[in-house]
């Protein structure tokens, strides 16, 4: 039976609201996700929240009912609440019908099976949570084996990243590693590392991109450092016909990922 | 000679800060852009600000000096200020060295020369300013003739859209039209309309995409309405191998745009 919380001053609401802050996420090992669509993706991927906040007026929605039932069956707590509290939790003026609080999960490099997928995405020092979430969403779409976050990337469990991922955070394995760890792991098995560069004439549609291909995306402002570019087995460039010399990081990653997918599907 | 403003209460600062709000942009016909990189893109595209705010400590930077000199020569006003006021204007904690205030500019459909480019981007009811700016950035990169915003799209002159465009707002023509106007204009000359759809088996790499191709991107949450899909000459789908059935709108637009570019460059 779901308990009801309608007071802003409720200690659990205060604690969960703090999860929008990275420091509190680290301390609690929990993060927030919102919206029926994303929480349903999570449920279908076998991920259930520790706390499920749902709006009273959405309680009869079949997807809400399924979330409540399965959350409680798995030992989590379902909490009936109102739009104001959902708004406070999610930070959105128009919150979805549900907010879930989940334990954080990442995988170790050693847990990744590189033979399980033809494409792997790798991002180094990514700064923008929207880009990170969007890259996860693309990873899901191209069937990537996972996303490997190298060095100091923005937190994949931030509200903005979770939102932009549209649920892919729950379905795509995410690993975090220092560059040296990643490089050593990469070189311990088959696979080529592919990077975008301005300093090459190698057109991105030319290579074959055999599986597994690891696509490295550099920092939004600076691109990848020289020593990472030097480690790449293949450097390619995309046509840039306008005034600018770069694309948005999530866009460049997606165009490359679909090129690799097309090559591997031929 | 640049005047100096260091008081938050200065009426011009207050007025310009209000430009972060859409209603004020409409009333004034002005918008904000920030950062040396974006303002320099604008300058190189022949667009100079009506007001240029620059940090005292960046006054000696060659790009700042060029902006100040050309702004004043063109009849605009250069205003020396501090980081606090730049932060107030841009809404960013770490503002760039410059903020420019520009007159809004869009073009009419009738001013677009469809023979001037092989690719044109069209977006309908786009909601996210970051997506709009990112699509402009992609439009620049693929050499698109322009971006046509159909029906009620988010404002391309919002601070977020300008920022995400990385200057492309100043180099890529932007037109706004109702769907019926756009359709009539489109059918008054050569060109095919291409849309993404879930209801087709036509792989996006199959068609030839002759110039000019108009790529239609639908609303982020709902995709394009049935009557727009029915108007498309070509409907294609992209492989979606994961749990989700759609990509981020800016990502999907970019993957399609690069596919069209590749076909047209063969």
UniProtKB/TrEMBL annotation, chains A, B:
It comes from the Bacteria. InterPro entries: Alpha/beta_knot_MTases (IPR029028), MRM3-like_sub_bind (IPR053888), Ribosomal_eL30-like_sf (IPR029064), rRNA_Methyltransferase (IPR051259), SpoU_MeTrfase (IPR001537), SpoU_subst-bd (IPR013123), tRNA_m1G_MTases_N (IPR029026). The keyword Repeat does not apply. One of its GO terms (molecular function) is RNA methyltransferase activity. Residues 32-108 form the RNA 2-O ribose methyltransferase substrate binding domain. Keywords: Methyltransferase, Transferase. GO terms for biological process: methylation; RNA processing. Pfam families: MRM3-like_sub_bind, SpoU_methylase. One of its GO terms (cellular component) is cytoplasm. Belongs to the class IV-like SAM-binding methyltransferase superfamily. RNA methyltransferase TrmH family. This is RNA methyltransferase.
């Amino acid at each position: 039976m779901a308990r009801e919380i309608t007071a802003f001053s409720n200690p659990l609401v205060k604690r969960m609201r703090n999860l929008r802050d990275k420091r509190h996420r680290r301390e609690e090992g929990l993060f927030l996700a919102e919206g029926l669509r994303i929480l349903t993706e999570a449920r279908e991927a076998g991920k259930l929240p520790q706390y499920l906040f749902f709006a009273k007026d959405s309680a009869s929605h079949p997807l809400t009912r399924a979330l409540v039932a399965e959350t409680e069956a798995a030992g989590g707590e379902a909490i009936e609440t109102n739009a104001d509290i959902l708004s406070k939790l999610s930070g959105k003026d128009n919150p979805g019908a549900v907010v879930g609080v989940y334990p954080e999960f990442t995988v170790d490099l050693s847990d990744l099976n590189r033979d399980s997928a033809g494409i792997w995405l790798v991002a180094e020092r990514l700064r923008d949570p929207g880009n990170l979430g969007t890259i996860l969403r693309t990873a899901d779409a191209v069937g990537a084996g996972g996303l490997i976050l190298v060095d100091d990337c923005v937190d994949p469990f931030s509200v903005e990243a979770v939102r932009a991922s549209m649920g892919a955070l729950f379905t795509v394995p995410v690993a975090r590693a220092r560059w040296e760890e990643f490089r050593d792991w990469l070189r311990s098995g088959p696979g080529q590392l592919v990077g975008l560069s301005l300093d090459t004439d190698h057109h991105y549609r030319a290579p074959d991109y055999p599986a597994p291909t690891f696509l490295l995306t550099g920092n939004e402002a600076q691109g990848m450092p020289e020593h990472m570019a030097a480690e790449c087995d293949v450097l390619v460039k995309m046509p840039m016909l306008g005034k600018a010399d770069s694309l948005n990081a999530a866009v460049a990653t997606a165009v490359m990922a679909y090129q690799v997918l097309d090559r591997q599907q031929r």
